[in-house]
Amino acid sequence: MAKPDEIMAEQLLKGGKMLAKSCKNCGNPLFEVKGETTCVVCASGPVQTEVHPEPLVSTPSPDQGNRTVVPDTLAKAIGGAVTVLCERAARDPNPANSLQLMQAVECGVRALQVLRE
Ligand SMILES: [Zn+2]
Fold first, then answer.
1. Does residue 49 contact residue 26 with C-beta atoms inside 8 Å?
2. Among 43, 53, 61, 107, which one is least packed by beta carbons within 10 Å?
């Protein structure tokens, strides 16, 4: 069973776009894949959920505006995916792979920046 961090890292590598929105089910960041917003973690089936033992208590957003309070868990989840990518880059001897990994890291970091704007 893959960890959410690894699933997200994989998705970033495939060119998926990480969004600054969290999944209502698992609290992990949503991805834009082929023009659709999906939760790659939920889509991959049952996952280890030790990261989020409690349901997310996020500020309700009645108007669904895109300037809602961002739960800490979302930032942590993105950070986790970025960490997985960085570790892989450090281990991978192939410079071509490293480049791809670093680009994926950049995507994650950008999502984090959007969160904090
Ligand atoms: Zn989910």
1. yes
2. 53
Residue that is written with structure tokens 């699933």 in the block: 7
* Amino acid at position 50, single letter: E
Name the token pair of 53: 């033992």
Contact 73, 22 (CB under 8 A): yes
Token pair 């996020």 is found at 58
- pTM for the model: 0.70
Residue 46 CA to ligand 1 center (angstroms) comes to 10
Angle at CA of residue 105, ends 107 and 5, nearest 5°:
100
* DSSP per-residue codes, 68-114: PPPPHHHHHHHHHHHHHHHHHHHH---HHHHHHHHHHHHHHHHHHHH
What are 8-66's pLDDT values in tens digits? 999 999 989 999 899 999 999 999 988 999 999 999 887 655 555 555 555 554 554 44
What is the whole-number distance in angstroms between the Cα of residue 21 and the centre of ligand 1?
11
